[in-house]
Amino acid sequence: MSNTQSNIPTAAAQTEHAIPMFSPTKELERIGYSNIQREMEKVLKSGTYISGPGVVVFEEAAAEYMGTKYAIAVSSGTMALELGLKAIGLSPKEPVTINANTFVAVAEAIIAAGGTPDLVDTDPNNWQMPKVATSNIVLASHLYGNASAAINSNTKLLMEDASQSFGARLNERLLGTFAPITAVSLYPTKNLSANGDAGIIFTNEEDYAQKCKALRNHGQSGYQMHQYCGTTGRMDDLLAVVLKLKLAHFDSFLQERRHLAALYTQKLKDTPLQLPVIESGLEPATNLFVVRTAHRDALKQHLTERQIGCGIHYPTPIHQMPAYTSLPWAQKHLPEAELLAQETLSLPIWVGMTEEQVSTVCNEVYRFFDTINRL
Ligand SMILES: Cc1ncc(COP(=O)(O)O)c(C=O)c1O
User: Which atom belonging to ligand 1 lies closest to the Cα atom of 313?
Assistant: First the structure.
């Protein structure tokens, strides 16, 4: 190959140097593709693909990890939220307080369960749902891997959404064990991630567990006997067996995320970025490494042009989404949530990301601020 040719970066070479926002493949490599293949082959050969033994074994392992009596595997995090709320039972249009900056699925699930999402503005200090009035019924989403103060003991805590904070501990207690029922998304970008759509519900209440199990399977309470109006919300065994393998590595994967987050924090401390605030007593789960700057869009563009993936969680608060403009609370002005939506940027963080890759991202952040300071 001539020199001229070798100097032209090929698509493959560019991909090699790119730093994705997230990558699930290193986790699978650590578990070992031969182990994964063996488990998946067992499922394929068994002929039972939905709610089979693979799902039951995963549920047992997940309940043991969480320290709850029950874990109910379902088809997505949204389904976990919806079925959990239906199991509790909302009265018609019952207001359920949620953070305006959480993922839209939370509002969808409350509406599907017959209630009304009632939005509260975001805490400007830690970018989470704040403590709310004690009379409010609360569905607390813990965002980015951190904890919402709304789980304090004075609140009527209906449910936790630990989708982004699975594995985080507050004063040594796992998030998701504060409410009577908790929903967790196992979407491919989450800390415990499936190779497809999946979710899980945790509870100690037998009634809720039984109802969720029935609801995910068309409300069946016995053979072809439908006690509730349910849905198709079950988990596939091919996903469950890989999730079970991942769970065995979960704590070491978490440690790695925390190490990468600590590196980012240390390296970025002299930039104008606002860095995540970790409350005392919290061991975060660092699902996302979210920073804040008024120059968010320009920084995102700078990183993207250098093949560094980054994301925004989320660019539009729920009350400003077109789907909800007809609802009364759509007219609310929630200044902190609105500002947060304009300023947050999620930097790449994933198991297997190298320290050099963190340095590359941080160097580009410094370069970006040097450039704008010179303007
Ligand atoms: C905070 C939060 N809640 C709920 C969900 C919904 O989960 P899923 O996408 O698995 O339905 C997500 C997923 O992105 C999430 O981040």
Answer: 16
pTM for the complete prediction? 0.94
Give burial (CB, 10 Å; 0-12/13-18/19+) of 196. Answer: middle
Q: For the segment 127-165, what is each residue's pLDDT rounded down to a tens digit? A: 999 998 877 899 999 999 999 999 986 778 999 999 999
- The CATH superfamily assigned to 250-374 is Aspartate Aminotransferase, domain 1 (3.90.1150.10)
**CA dihedral sign, ordered 23, 29, 30, 33:** positive
Q: Is the shortest distance between the CB of 198 and ligand 1 below 6 Å?
A: no
SS3 content of the chain, % helix, strand, coil (to 5): 45, 15, 40
Q: Computed from CA positions of residues 267, 272, 275, 280, in that sequence, does the dihedral angle turn out positive or negative?
A: positive
Pocket test for ligand 1, best of 21, 185, 192 (most atoms within 8 A of CB): 185
List the one residue out of 65, 56, 74, 80 whose CA is nearest residue 249. Answer: 65
- How far, in Å, CA of 214 to CA of 211, rounded? 5
Pocket test for ligand 1, best of 81, 103, 175 (most atoms within 8 A of CB): 103
The pairing of strands 137-141 and 156-161 is parallel
Residue bearing tokens 């699902």: 287
**Ligand 1 and 350: CB distance under 6 A:** no
**How remote is the CA of residue 105 from the centroid of ligand 1, in Å?**
6
> 121: Cβ–Cβ under 8 A, 6 or more apart, which residues?
100, 130, 334, 335, 336, 337
Taking alpha carbons only, the member of 82, 87, 53 closest to residue 236 is: 53
Per-residue pLDDT tens over the stretch 341-360: 999 999 999 999 999 999 99
Q: How far is the CA of 155 from the centre of ligand 1 (A)?
A: 23
- DSSP 8-state secondary structure symbol assigned to residue 168: -
Q: How far is the CA of 272 from the centre of ligand 1 (A)?
A: 30
Ligand 1: residue whose CA is nearest its atom 10:
77
Q: How many residues belong to the chain?
A: 375
Phi, psi for 186 (deg, rounded to 5): -115, 30
| Domain ranges for the chain | 26-120+127-243, 250-374
Class of domain 26-120+127-243: alpha beta
